[in-house]
Amino acid sequence: MPCAVLSTMKIMRHIGLRLDSEEERTKFLDMGVNFTSDTKMPGGGILANIDLAEDDPRWRGIELLLGGRRTLDCVASTFSSADLYAAKFLRIVAKSGGYPQPENKNGYLSATYDLADYCPRCGIGRKQAGPFRFKGPPALRDNSILQLNWIFDECFVTHTTWEAVFKRLGIEKRPAVMHRSGVEIGSLVQLDIPQVCDLKLEGASHVECPFCRRKKYSPVFRGFLPAPVAPNTPIFKSSQSFGAGALAFKLIIVSADLYRRFKEVGLKGAEFYACAK
Q: Does pTM top 0.90 for this prediction?
Protein backbone atom coordinates (compact mmCIF):
# COMPACT_ATOMS: atom_id res chain seq x y z
CA MET A 1 0.00 0.00 0.00
CA PRO A 2 1.57 3.36 -1.00
CA CYS A 3 2.11 6.01 1.64
CA ALA A 4 -0.75 8.49 1.88
CA VAL A 5 -0.04 11.72 0.03
CA LEU A 6 -2.10 14.71 -0.91
CA SER A 7 -4.24 14.39 -4.00
CA THR A 8 -2.64 15.76 -7.16
CA MET A 9 -5.60 15.22 -9.47
CA LYS A 10 -5.32 17.59 -12.41
CA ILE A 11 -7.60 18.48 -15.28
CA MET A 12 -5.50 18.38 -18.42
CA ARG A 13 -6.31 20.08 -21.70
CA HIS A 14 -5.19 18.55 -24.99
CA ILE A 15 -4.84 20.50 -28.24
CA GLY A 16 -4.11 18.88 -31.59
CA LEU A 17 -3.36 21.21 -34.49
CA ARG A 18 -1.62 21.60 -37.83
CA LEU A 19 1.13 24.20 -38.19
CA ASP A 20 1.96 25.57 -41.61
CA SER A 21 5.67 26.17 -41.08
CA GLU A 22 8.68 25.84 -38.80
CA GLU A 23 8.32 29.55 -38.04
CA GLU A 24 4.87 28.93 -36.53
CA ARG A 25 6.28 26.09 -34.45
CA THR A 26 9.02 28.39 -33.14
CA LYS A 27 6.46 30.93 -31.89
CA PHE A 28 5.02 28.29 -29.56
CA LEU A 29 8.49 27.18 -28.42
CA ASP A 30 9.46 30.78 -27.67
CA MET A 31 6.46 30.96 -25.35
CA GLY A 32 7.82 27.98 -23.40
CA VAL A 33 5.38 25.45 -24.87
CA ASN A 34 6.83 21.99 -25.42
CA PHE A 35 4.89 19.85 -27.87
CA THR A 36 4.12 16.32 -26.70
CA SER A 37 4.56 15.37 -30.35
CA ASP A 38 5.26 17.21 -33.60
CA THR A 39 5.45 15.36 -36.90
CA LYS A 40 6.43 16.84 -40.26
CA MET A 41 3.96 15.86 -42.98
CA PRO A 42 5.11 14.73 -46.45
CA GLY A 43 2.95 17.37 -48.15
CA GLY A 44 4.15 20.14 -45.87
CA GLY A 45 3.11 21.37 -42.47
CA ILE A 46 3.52 19.94 -38.99
CA LEU A 47 1.00 17.96 -36.94
CA ALA A 48 1.49 18.95 -33.29
CA ASN A 49 -0.01 18.13 -29.91
CA ILE A 50 0.00 20.19 -26.72
CA ASP A 51 -0.88 18.80 -23.26
CA LEU A 52 -1.03 21.18 -20.29
CA ALA A 53 -3.01 21.52 -17.09
CA GLU A 54 -6.25 23.41 -17.75
CA ASP A 55 -5.21 26.18 -15.32
CA ASP A 56 -1.74 26.67 -16.85
CA PRO A 57 -1.22 30.43 -17.43
CA ARG A 58 0.35 29.76 -20.85
CA TRP A 59 -3.06 28.94 -22.35
CA ARG A 60 -3.86 32.63 -22.79
CA GLY A 61 -0.90 33.12 -25.10
CA ILE A 62 -1.50 29.80 -26.85
CA GLU A 63 -5.09 30.74 -27.68
CA LEU A 64 -3.90 34.04 -29.18
CA LEU A 65 -1.51 32.13 -31.43
CA LEU A 66 -4.23 29.66 -32.39
CA GLY A 67 -6.56 32.43 -33.55
CA GLY A 68 -9.45 30.89 -35.47
CA ARG A 69 -7.46 27.78 -36.45
CA ARG A 70 -9.35 24.49 -36.40
CA THR A 71 -8.07 22.26 -33.61
CA LEU A 72 -8.86 19.16 -31.65
CA ASP A 73 -9.57 20.50 -28.15
CA CYS A 74 -10.50 18.21 -25.26
CA VAL A 75 -9.96 17.75 -21.54
CA ALA A 76 -9.19 14.77 -19.32
CA SER A 77 -8.41 14.26 -15.65
CA THR A 78 -5.24 12.68 -14.29
CA PHE A 79 -5.13 11.15 -10.82
CA SER A 80 -2.37 10.63 -8.28
CA SER A 81 -1.61 7.19 -6.85
CA ALA A 82 -3.24 8.40 -3.63
CA ASP A 83 -6.47 9.24 -5.48
CA LEU A 84 -6.55 5.84 -7.17
CA TYR A 85 -5.80 3.82 -4.05
CA ALA A 86 -8.33 5.81 -1.99
CA ALA A 87 -11.16 5.32 -4.52
CA LYS A 88 -13.81 2.69 -3.80
CA PHE A 89 -14.48 2.29 -7.52
CA LEU A 90 -12.55 3.18 -10.67
CA ARG A 91 -13.22 3.26 -14.39
CA ILE A 92 -10.87 1.11 -16.47
CA VAL A 93 -9.94 2.01 -20.07
CA ALA A 94 -7.72 -0.43 -21.96
CA LYS A 95 -5.36 0.12 -24.88
CA SER A 96 -6.59 -0.38 -28.44
CA GLY A 97 -6.02 -3.74 -30.10
CA GLY A 98 -7.35 -3.21 -33.62
CA TYR A 99 -10.82 -3.28 -35.14
CA PRO A 100 -13.70 -5.75 -34.80
CA GLN A 101 -14.35 -7.73 -37.96
CA PRO A 102 -15.77 -7.36 -40.49
CA GLU A 103 -15.01 -3.66 -40.20
CA ASN A 104 -16.14 -2.74 -43.73
CA LYS A 105 -19.47 -0.86 -43.57
CA ASN A 106 -19.74 -1.66 -39.86
CA GLY A 107 -20.34 -5.32 -40.67
CA TYR A 108 -19.17 -6.28 -37.19
CA LEU A 109 -22.46 -4.98 -35.79
CA SER A 110 -24.67 -7.61 -37.45
CA ALA A 111 -21.95 -10.27 -37.04
CA THR A 112 -21.66 -9.76 -33.28
CA TYR A 113 -24.83 -8.14 -31.96
CA ASP A 114 -28.57 -8.59 -31.72
CA LEU A 115 -29.75 -5.31 -33.25
CA ALA A 116 -33.47 -5.63 -32.57
CA ASP A 117 -33.34 -2.73 -30.09
CA TYR A 118 -30.44 -0.88 -31.75
CA CYS A 119 -30.76 2.74 -32.87
CA PRO A 120 -28.33 3.59 -35.72
CA ARG A 121 -28.78 7.30 -35.04
CA CYS A 122 -27.38 7.28 -31.48
CA GLY A 123 -25.79 3.80 -31.20
CA ILE A 124 -27.79 2.69 -28.14
CA GLY A 125 -29.43 -0.73 -27.88
CA ARG A 126 -26.98 -3.27 -29.28
CA LYS A 127 -26.79 -6.57 -27.34
CA GLN A 128 -23.97 -9.02 -27.88
CA ALA A 129 -25.19 -12.25 -29.43
CA GLY A 130 -21.97 -13.82 -30.75
CA PRO A 131 -18.20 -13.72 -30.30
CA PHE A 132 -16.05 -10.85 -31.47
CA ARG A 133 -14.10 -11.60 -34.62
CA PHE A 134 -10.41 -10.72 -35.08
CA LYS A 135 -8.25 -10.56 -38.21
CA GLY A 136 -5.70 -12.63 -36.31
CA PRO A 137 -4.61 -13.35 -32.76
CA PRO A 138 -3.58 -10.02 -31.22
CA ALA A 139 -0.05 -9.65 -29.87
CA LEU A 140 -1.19 -9.64 -26.25
CA ARG A 141 1.11 -10.68 -23.43
CA ASP A 142 0.09 -12.16 -20.11
CA ASN A 143 -0.96 -9.54 -17.56
CA SER A 144 -2.07 -7.21 -20.36
CA ILE A 145 -5.55 -6.08 -21.35
CA LEU A 146 -7.00 -4.55 -24.52
CA GLN A 147 -10.15 -3.17 -26.08
CA LEU A 148 -11.20 -2.88 -29.72
CA ASN A 149 -11.64 0.38 -31.59
CA TRP A 150 -15.32 1.46 -31.61
CA ILE A 151 -16.01 -0.99 -28.74
CA PHE A 152 -15.21 0.79 -25.49
CA ASP A 153 -17.24 -1.40 -23.14
CA GLU A 154 -15.62 -4.81 -23.62
CA CYS A 155 -12.18 -6.06 -22.56
CA PHE A 156 -9.95 -8.93 -23.70
CA VAL A 157 -7.13 -10.72 -21.87
CA THR A 158 -5.07 -13.86 -22.38
CA HIS A 159 -6.57 -17.08 -21.09
CA THR A 160 -3.67 -17.27 -18.60
CA THR A 161 -4.49 -13.82 -17.18
CA TRP A 162 -8.17 -14.70 -16.93
CA GLU A 163 -7.35 -17.80 -14.88
CA ALA A 164 -4.87 -15.98 -12.63
CA VAL A 165 -6.90 -12.83 -11.95
CA PHE A 166 -10.54 -13.03 -13.01
CA LYS A 167 -11.64 -16.66 -12.71
CA ARG A 168 -11.03 -16.79 -8.96
CA LEU A 169 -13.34 -13.76 -8.54
CA GLY A 170 -16.18 -15.49 -10.38
CA ILE A 171 -15.77 -13.37 -13.54
CA GLU A 172 -16.70 -15.51 -16.54
CA LYS A 173 -15.26 -15.44 -20.07
CA ARG A 174 -16.49 -15.46 -23.66
CA PRO A 175 -14.59 -16.84 -26.65
CA ALA A 176 -13.02 -14.72 -29.40
CA VAL A 177 -12.69 -16.11 -32.93
CA MET A 178 -10.81 -15.66 -36.18
CA HIS A 179 -12.92 -13.73 -38.66
CA ARG A 180 -12.54 -15.79 -41.83
CA SER A 181 -12.46 -19.27 -40.32
CA GLY A 182 -14.57 -18.80 -37.19
CA VAL A 183 -11.97 -20.82 -35.28
CA GLU A 184 -11.74 -19.93 -31.59
CA ILE A 185 -8.56 -18.12 -30.51
CA GLY A 186 -7.50 -20.33 -27.63
CA SER A 187 -5.05 -17.87 -26.13
CA LEU A 188 -7.56 -14.97 -25.94
CA VAL A 189 -10.82 -14.48 -24.05
CA GLN A 190 -13.33 -11.69 -23.62
CA LEU A 191 -14.30 -10.79 -20.06
CA ASP A 192 -18.00 -11.48 -19.55
CA ILE A 193 -19.44 -8.46 -17.69
CA PRO A 194 -23.24 -8.83 -17.53
CA GLN A 195 -23.78 -6.83 -14.33
CA VAL A 196 -24.86 -3.19 -14.63
CA CYS A 197 -25.29 -0.41 -12.09
CA ASP A 198 -26.62 3.15 -12.17
CA LEU A 199 -24.11 5.96 -11.81
CA LYS A 200 -25.02 9.14 -9.96
CA LEU A 201 -25.56 11.39 -12.98
CA GLU A 202 -28.05 13.93 -11.66
CA GLY A 203 -27.51 17.15 -13.61
CA ALA A 204 -24.88 15.62 -15.92
CA SER A 205 -24.67 16.81 -19.53
CA HIS A 206 -26.61 14.59 -21.92
CA VAL A 207 -28.56 14.54 -25.18
CA GLU A 208 -31.80 12.79 -26.05
CA CYS A 209 -31.93 10.91 -29.33
CA PRO A 210 -34.65 12.41 -31.55
CA PHE A 211 -35.43 8.94 -32.93
CA CYS A 212 -35.45 6.53 -29.97
CA ARG A 213 -35.76 9.17 -27.19
CA ARG A 214 -33.05 7.52 -25.08
CA LYS A 215 -30.46 9.55 -23.19
CA LYS A 216 -26.72 9.53 -23.83
CA TYR A 217 -24.26 11.27 -21.54
CA SER A 218 -21.02 13.08 -22.31
CA PRO A 219 -17.96 10.83 -21.78
CA VAL A 220 -15.85 13.85 -20.75
CA PHE A 221 -15.51 14.40 -17.01
CA ARG A 222 -13.74 17.18 -15.14
CA GLY A 223 -12.41 15.65 -11.95
CA PHE A 224 -13.77 12.50 -10.29
CA LEU A 225 -16.22 10.32 -12.18
CA PRO A 226 -19.77 9.83 -10.88
CA ALA A 227 -20.07 7.19 -8.15
CA PRO A 228 -22.04 3.96 -8.67
CA VAL A 229 -25.31 3.77 -6.73
CA ALA A 230 -25.38 0.22 -5.31
CA PRO A 231 -22.60 -1.98 -6.73
CA ASN A 232 -22.23 -5.56 -5.50
CA THR A 233 -19.67 -7.09 -7.85
CA PRO A 234 -15.94 -6.49 -8.56
CA ILE A 235 -16.53 -5.44 -12.18
CA PHE A 236 -19.66 -4.06 -13.84
CA LYS A 237 -20.89 -1.62 -16.47
CA SER A 238 -22.84 1.58 -16.11
CA SER A 239 -26.52 1.17 -16.90
CA GLN A 240 -26.39 4.57 -18.64
CA SER A 241 -24.89 5.08 -22.10
CA PHE A 242 -22.11 7.51 -22.98
CA GLY A 243 -20.67 8.78 -26.26
CA ALA A 244 -21.26 11.19 -29.13
CA GLY A 245 -22.83 10.98 -32.58
CA ALA A 246 -23.65 7.38 -33.52
CA LEU A 247 -21.26 5.95 -30.91
CA ALA A 248 -22.65 4.72 -27.59
CA PHE A 249 -20.98 2.67 -24.88
CA LYS A 250 -21.13 1.84 -21.18
CA LEU A 251 -18.39 2.67 -18.68
CA ILE A 252 -16.57 -0.34 -17.21
CA ILE A 253 -16.10 0.08 -13.45
CA VAL A 254 -13.94 -2.04 -11.12
CA SER A 255 -13.83 -2.26 -7.32
CA ALA A 256 -10.91 -1.12 -5.17
CA ASP A 257 -10.05 -4.76 -4.43
CA LEU A 258 -9.85 -5.66 -8.12
CA TYR A 259 -7.77 -2.54 -8.83
CA ARG A 260 -5.30 -3.60 -6.12
CA ARG A 261 -5.15 -7.06 -7.66
CA PHE A 262 -4.30 -5.48 -11.00
CA LYS A 263 -1.43 -3.59 -9.35
CA GLU A 264 -0.18 -6.78 -7.67
CA VAL A 265 0.07 -8.67 -10.96
CA GLY A 266 1.38 -5.65 -12.87
CA LEU A 267 -1.52 -5.39 -15.32
CA LYS A 268 -0.40 -3.50 -18.44
CA GLY A 269 -2.35 -1.60 -21.07
CA ALA A 270 -4.93 0.02 -18.77
CA GLU A 271 -5.64 3.51 -17.49
CA PHE A 272 -7.75 4.12 -14.39
CA TYR A 273 -9.98 7.04 -13.40
CA ALA A 274 -11.25 7.41 -9.83
CA CYS A 275 -14.96 7.61 -9.06
CA ALA A 276 -16.23 10.00 -6.43
CA LYS A 277 -16.95 8.50 -3.01
A: no
